Amino acid sequence: MKKNNVSSAILYVSLLAFISFVVYILYINQEVFYTVHDRSEFLFGTPFFHTLMQKPFGLIQYVGAWFTQLFCHPALGAGVLVAIWTLIFYVGAKAFRLQGSASALMLLPVACLLTSIVDLGYWIYILPIRGYWFSQSIGYLIMLLFLWAARSTPRKWHIVWYLLAFCIYPVLGWFAQLFILCLVLSEKPTWRELLGIILLFFTASIWHTQFYSNLRLDDIMLAGFPRFETPTDYSGRLAIPFWILGAISVLIPLLGRYLGRRFTPVLCVIAGIVFTLSFMFRDRNYIEEMRMVHYAEDDNWKEVLNIVAESPKPTTTMVFLKNVALMNEGGLLDRSFKTGNICYPIYNPDSLHVSLLDIAAPLVYYNYGMMNEAIRLNFEKAIQTGFSPFYLKMLSRCALAKGDQEQRKRYTTLLHHLPFYSNWQPNPVTEKVNKLQNCFSDEVSGVENSDSYLVNSMSFWYESDSKVASEQALFYAMIYGGSNRFWPSLRKFLKLHVGEEFPLHAQEAYILFMDKAPEAKRMMIPVEQDIYDRYKQFWKALQTRVKPGLTLGKVAEDMREGWGDTYWYYYIFGRQYTNIVSRKDHEIPS
Questions:
Q1: Which phi-psi region, left, alpha or beta, contains residue 493 (left: φ > 0; alpha: ψ -120 to 50)?
Q2: pLDDT value, residue 519
Q3: By CB neighbour count within 10 A (0-12 exposed, 13-18 middle, 19+ buried), where does 105 fall?
Q4: Within its chain, how far is the Cα of 358 from the centroid?
Q5: Burial 294-308 (b: 16+ CB within 10 A, else e)
Q6: Are 196 and 158 in contact (CB under 8 A)?
Q7: CA-CA to 143 of 20 to 30 Å: which in 69, 200, 429, 460?
Q8: Dihedral sign, Cα of residue 201, residue 204, residue 205, residue 210
Q9: How many CB atoms lie within 10 A of CB 52?
């Protein structure tokens, strides 16, 4: 009796510890879950449903795609996931007939499913699998329900369950095969189990021959098993949780009766936590990018600036959104380089082809008034990854900006069929967006290097008579770093801003180009003496640090604290859009 009480106490404490861990992991990924809903496609109507039903496991994906929209409120979506996992634990213990401490073995499948939704990283922006975040948990739960029901019936009826599993393969996909395998291994071998093994091997090929001949056999084998591949990217690492999920489900019927030891719950909890933490994608900029996009969608530019102010090494996406925020809040040429314009690479263990183009380019193009480019990018990315709320909202905003009420109504109607979007309407078009889209010809270029295209295009906006456009032209001429663009941009800026203060970073750029890139017709403009004196101090500090054998990266790091808030620091260490300065951290020659 005393031993039973101790075992029960260990089990309950272990369960509490694991539940606390799951809640913590879900909590720190709240912004990820919001982005999951924002980038996941679910369209109301028969076309979307029929498209998914053209292949096995499509019905589960459809259900999963609907549930994914609950992540619009991350706590709600996470709560539904936890409810499904709780059912998996309970039903799994019944299906595998695990009692007492042995029931803790069902924590391991839950750990695999938890890991599968927090290990994606930047795949979240390009994943083509519909309903991924719920479909695997739902499919596994249904498989366990079938297994529980099958093992609750007389053994002579197992032949019916094997045939049923064959029939529902188009619905359950690889989980139907897993059900057959688990049921076979749960009993002593007889001719019924032999038939089950035969069905297991030939199920996919039979369905392919009879009903899915228009699809590749590769798409039928293990249907619904997540494959992380696009025309340009592939990851085998992300499929590991599902291979382990299948392996655990097979091993439990074989070994479960031998694992009901007192400390089994503790070992299962430790194994689950270590496994999840080993695979979970953790990167601060990854989360901050999502937060900035979320706030930018709502035109909450103050929060965008608050985030980037606390990010010492921002990515390209963060830098562009910061500069859009400064355009709207004011102070672009006084504040931008104080928070840095050097773009650091994203943390990307799978070496994905993911950039600003995938994360926020349509949003950036929209705010710079480049509607045709924004619409083109929205359609291109939506065709690749689905017409998710993010792209539908951006298309609606672009249509409103162009005055196309029919298209705006079309996109908002699609959104109104989604949970929590029944009253959604695009934000009013801001004055700056209107001015920018009317001050130049918005031609569709079809370029792919989105950040370079933005810099190159806007650095030529000095021909416009718009004050907003002249500010952007001067700023991006400074980012580009070429004197042939800086001088005409500066002339137009000063012409349109007569009587206004000469912005800090514009003064820094003017001093540098006067010193390093003089022209025949230079402009003589008074600058503040303190700024000029600091410029001379910058070059002295640079000369004392540049020594043979050091790398530019090392020198940049040494200079960052004292000079990282200046345009001069960016000009020397950060230019990315010209061929003058190499991106590589090469060694300084003797």
A1: alpha
A2: 61
A3: buried
A4: 9
A5: bbbbeeebeebbebb
A6: yes
A7: 69
A8: positive
A9: 18
Sign of the CA dihedral running 268, 272, 273, 275 = positive
Write the CA distances from 124 to 24, 33, 139, 386, integer angstroms: 21, 10, 21, 12
User: Sign of dihedral through CA atoms 548, 552, 555, 557?
Assistant: negative
Amino acid at 570: Y
User: What distance in Å separates the CA atoms of residue 462 and residue 485, rounded to the nearest whole number?
Assistant: 9
Q: With 50 as the cut, is the pLDDT of residue 581 above it?
A: no
- Which residues have C-beta within 8 Å of that of residue 305, sequence separation ≥ 6? 322, 325, 326, 329, 339
Q: Which residues contact 80 (CB under 8 A, 6 or more apart)?
A: 67, 70, 134
Distance CA 535, CA 6 (A): 72
Percent of the chain at pLDDT above 70?
Answer: 88
Number of helices (H) and strands (E) in the chain: give both, helices first: 31, 2
Token couple for 224:
């619904």
Angstrom distance (rounded) from CA 277 to CA 512: 48
Give the model confidence (pLDDT) of 265-308 as tens digits.
999 999 999 999 999 999 999 999 999 999 999 999 999 999 99
pLDDT of 11 strictly over 80 = yes
In DSSP terms, which residues pair with 587 in a beta bridge? 551
Q: What percent of the chain has pLDDT over 90?
A: 55
What element of type H or E holds 235? strand 234-235
Do residues 438 and 88 lie in contact, with contact meaning Cβ atoms separated by under 8 Å?
no
Q: Give dist(CA 67, CA 399) in Å, integer.
A: 29
Instruction: Return the number of other C-beta atoms located less than 10 Å from residue 338's C-beta.
Output: 14
d(CA 344, CA 564): 14
The residue among 46, 49, 45 whose CA lies nearest residue 58 is: 49
d(CA 145, CA 401): 51
Q: Which one, of 554, 558, 545, 553, lies nearest residue 574 by Cα?
A: 553
Q: Which residue has the tokens 């996470």?
A: 78
Instruction: Report the alpha-carbon distance of residue 136 to residue 93 in Å, rounded.
Output: 19
Distance of CA 23 to the CA centre of its chain: 21
Instruction: Note the helical H segments in 330-421.
Output: 332-335, 356-359, 361-367, 371-385, 389-401, 405-416
Distance CA 134, CA 531 (A): 57
Beta bridge mates, 205: none
User: What is the longest distance spanned by two Cα atoms in the chain?
Assistant: 98
